[in-house]
Design a protein that fits this description.
The chain has 692 residues and is an alpha+beta fold. It contains 20 helices and 27 strands.
């Protein structure tokens, strides 16, 4: 083609013109659609000047002015006047760079320019208003005032996968995932996986002990009958369901559910990561990938995307685990609606503030229970949850037997077995009672059964605080679960499963729970006690264990069956009579001022020698579970305490008035000698109990 330029005809090849036009058309979209996190020089031109990589880049913006005095590029003239370069360097470093927000190598410095609209003053003139400091988002160009809010704003972008400008939402790249391994199971999570409600893949490493306890409970149930259908109603990353399927194999049929689409996608990817096949729900779209073509085998996990209440209403399960963020009471009715007979429901409650009496109005709203902060507040929380579970099961004509109740720093775990029928439901409902708690000495007792009003309910308390103190001294707490919190036979089998699968963190806690359920010390603990070696009956069901021969399951004739039933009833009454005492006392709470307390293990021996049942408790490391009244507890504690001003005096009994002496107790020195002799014998003969 010919182009006229200064009256001179110039010939330009047509191919070069087309190439220049094509390059001009491609240049603009390449700049506008570029990724703002790209570390190359093609950075988008619409970025704010407060977003830089190095402090020197901010100084270069001020160097554009040729004068000796240079202004701050991020402050208006009326806020910071032009100055020399050394003073400007200190200003940029201290007021802008040190308070910046770092992300992917970039610094979002604080900006004082009039970028953000400010509120007008009372006169209505915006020029007289004070310019507010703010940050510019590197992703969406939003202006945020506080630094903490800016950090949370950036984290929300990362969780949603928004890594490009102009709100272009894409899935986070594979490199941004972290692979976490727990119990031979790999799961991939997002970077801030430990922040609940702000990420689609919530994974808390502190809940590893909780997951191990639930796995042991499921393994025990899988040994009773197989295969069993189990549900993880809130999958998140799916690690719990993956551990079930990976270790128990053909004994379980695992279903992992979550209502979040991103979580469901991540669960599927984690299944592939652990070489598990995925069976999609029939409600899934046909466009989704189906691995395994819906076939049933030991390596297949069913993944569903729906509300947890809907899943539990549609299908029946043998094992259901509920672990929502917060309280589980919204899902109890659905869980007990279709749970099979003798199935297990486990629930983890993380609403610690309400259960531990820090937000009592929330406890009243969620659980319909009145509680206060006491020395035994953790056991109070466990009994509060079990009471709500009991009422939900009774509405479905089902009773419960509590197999396990654990309350630790971060969660409250309750595992119950479901017993169908109105009779078990009535028996369980009768165990929900009110608790009378003395606010002066913290003595407590469950209210007696019956509907008749008592003239003086203070008479039920063993203490006499009401007679010696003015006003009302006790408060009514509840309704609470008044039955047992543990099943000894079930806990022993859980301990065996923990040893078999190498769950080291759960074994010490399970040993403590077994001792607590039997109300005995760890010194006398053994894996197979003589009384429980052939114990087969749990909640009316005969369970096969390795120590039982096949002949014990054969029942010949009607008379023989009646004898077996009568024997089972006698064993049930005997177990009920030896039920562990409710609640515990904290030895520090009841210590005597000016006295040195004995060691906790020695104090347990002193109480045992006085004729009381005693054990430690997992609820409180300094707690003592005993059937001794508080008055006798304090008497024994005072007797074996020493004055603080006697430095070299060994622990021994303190001579008390005759009315508070404890009868039939050996002196402290003799007790110490007996204990030392026992320890010497143990060292010589070895540990008689099985140690794992």
């Amino acid at each position: 083609e010919k182009v006229k330029s200064n009256n001179i005809d110039v010939k330009i090849p047509k191919s070069e013109l087309e190439a220049e036009e094509k390059g001009a058309e491609e240049e603009h979209p390449r700049e506008s659609d570029s990724n703002i996190l790209d570390v190359s020089s093609d950075y988008p031109i619409d970025k704010h000047i407060s977003i830089q990589r190095h402090l020197a880049d901010l100084e270069k913006l001020a160097d554009l002015r040729e004068d000796e005095r240079k202004p701050c590029p991020l402050c208006p003239e009326e806020k910071f006047k032009a100055c020399y370069s050394h003073k400007l360097h200190r200003h940029l470093q201290n007021l802008h760079w040190k308070v910046s927000v770092e992300f992917e190598g970039y610094r979002m410095c604080i900006c004082h320019l009039s970028c953000r609209p400010v509120k007008p003053n009372l006169v209505g003139d915006q020029t007289l208003s004070k310019m507010g400091a703010h940050y510019h988002c590197i992703i969406c160009s939003a202006t945020i005032i506080r630094r903490t809010d800016m950090i949370g704003h950036i984290n929300r972008h990362v969780n949603k996968g928004e890594t490009e400008s102009r709100f272009i939402t894409v899935r986070a790249p594979k490199s941004s995932y972290e692979v976490v391994k727990e119990s031979a199971t790999d799961v991939q999570v997002l970077p801030n996986h430990s922040t609940p409600q702000k990420t689609d893949s919530y994974f808390n490493p502190k809940m590893k002990l909780n997951r191990q306890l639930i796995f042991c409970a499921l393994a025990v149930l899988a040994g009773e009958r197989k295969p069993i259908e189990c549900l993880d109603a809130f999958g998140a990353t799916g690690i719990m369901g993956l551990q079930w399927a990976k270790h128990l194999r053909s004994s379980v049929k695992v279903t992992i559910n979550d209502c979040n689409e991103n979580s469901v996608t991540m669960i599927k990817e984690n299944c592939h990561l652990n070489k598990m096949k995925v069976k999609l729900n029939i409600r899934e779209e046909d466009s989704d990938e189906t691995v395994g073509n819906g076939e049933e085998n030991s390596d297949t996990i069913e993944v569903t995307k729906m509300d947890a209440n809907v899943v539990m209403h549609l299908r029946s399960f043998d094992f259901i685990h509920l672990d929502p963020f917060g309280t589980s009471v919204n899902y109890l009715d659905s869980a007990f609606r279709n749970i099979r007979n003798l199935g297990i429901v486990s629930l983890t409650s993380t609403d610690i503030s309400s259960l531990y009496a820090k937000a009592q109005h929330v406890t009243q709203r969620h659980y319909g229970c009145n509680i206060v902060r006491t020395e035994y507040y953790k056991e109070l929380a466990a009994r509060t949850v079990i009471a709500a579970v009991t009422r939900a099961a009774a509405r479905c004509n089902k009773g419960i037997e509590v197999l396990l109740a654990v309350a630790l720093e971060h969660f409250v775990l309750v595992v119950v077995r479901v017993l169908r029928g109105p009779t078990p439901a009535d028996d369980s409902a009768r165990k929900v009672r009110y608790l009378i708690h003395c606010q002066w000495c913290e003595e407590r007792v469950f209210q007696k059964e019956g509907n008749m009003m008592e003239e003086n309910p203070y008479q039920q308390l063993p203490c006499d605080c009401h007679g010696s103190m003015p006003g009302k001294t006790a408060v009514l707490l509840g309704p609470l679960w008044s039955g047992a919190l543990f099943n000894t036979g079930f806990l022993r089998r859980m301990l065996l499963e923990a040893v078999q699968y190498g769950l080291d963190e759960a074994q010490p806690l399970l040993k403590t729970l077994v001792c607590e359920s039997e109300c005995t010390t760890l010194k006398h603990f053994s894996t197979h006690s003589p009384g429980d070696e052939n114990k087969q009956e749990e909640c009316g069901v005969y369970i096969r264990t390795p120590n039982t021969s096949a002949e014990s399951y054969l029942v010949h004739g009607k008379r023989k069956s009646e004898e077996v039933l009568r024997g089972a009833a006698k064993r049930q009454r005997a177990e009920h009579s030896t039920e562990h005492p409710p609640f515990y006392y904290n030895i520090h709470r009841h210590s005597i001022k000016g006295m040195n307390m004995p060691k906790l293990n020695k104090f347990l021996n002193y109480l045992s020698e006085a004729g009381y049942r005693v054990s430690r408790t997992h609820f409180d490391p300094m707690g003592v579970r005993t059937n001794a009244p508080l008055a006798q507890f304090k008497t024994v504690l005072m007797k074996y305490s020493t004055p603080t001003y006697v430095g070299a005096q060994a622990e021994g009994p303190v001579h008390l008035p005759g009315e508070i002496q404890v009868g039939e107790e050996v002196p402290a020195a003799a007790a110490i000698k007996v204990e030392e002799a026992d320890l010497a014998e143990d060292d010589k003969s070895g540990v008689s109990a099985t140690v794992f």
